[in-house]
Design goal:
The protein is an alpha/beta fold. It is built from nine helices and five strands, in the order βαβαααβαβαααβα. It has a five-stranded parallel beta sheet. The structure holds adenosine-5'-diphosphate.
Length: about 190
Amino acid sequence: MLNLVLFGPPGAGKGTQAEFLIKSYGLEHLSTGDLLRSEIAAGTKLGLEAKSFMEKGELVPDEVVIGMIKTKLENNKAVKGFIFDGFPRTVDQAKALDNLLNENGTPISGMLSLEVDKQELINRLMKRGEISGRPDDQDQSVIENRINVYNQKTLPLIEYYKPQGKHFGINGMGSIEDIAGRLEAVITKL
Ligand code: ADP
């Protein structure tokens, strides 16, 4: 199995690149952001709980997202592997994911970390907000908060995967095709 963590700040292009990887490698895409937005759209209790955090650009509590991922892993036993997109976002989430995957004997193969300048991130997110209508992409202070939360709580994950030899930094600036090529060059070696 090929289990990839697609990592990077908001606006780094994780979702866009995930689409490429699904096609090339036949992996199952698990985006916690997409899953949470579906819960909100469906008006579930979980969605209601998550909404207030997402609107402010704060992280949804660990137990909520871990529970969602656990269900998805249990319901997708026959797949070739997963692309985790926007998850894990805290060290506790990464530990929980390792425990869940170890139960199946299918550990994380690698963490692909997209690196993009802060100003470029803000530009991309504001542009995405105009098209997608996502409220958290339309307010500069929410965007800045998401980047700060990323720096404080999510960036330390690099130090979690590095000692395991699983961290791969990838230049996330340039054309979509160029970045996809850089990802593929790393994945072939895994
Ligand atoms: P982006 O990467 O652009 O921030 P996402 O769709 O990944 O977009 O996430 C949107 C929001 O959903 C986050 O700001 C956060 O509130 C919530 N969220 C998504 N994934 C997680 C996670 N793994 N842990 C906690 N909150 C999450």
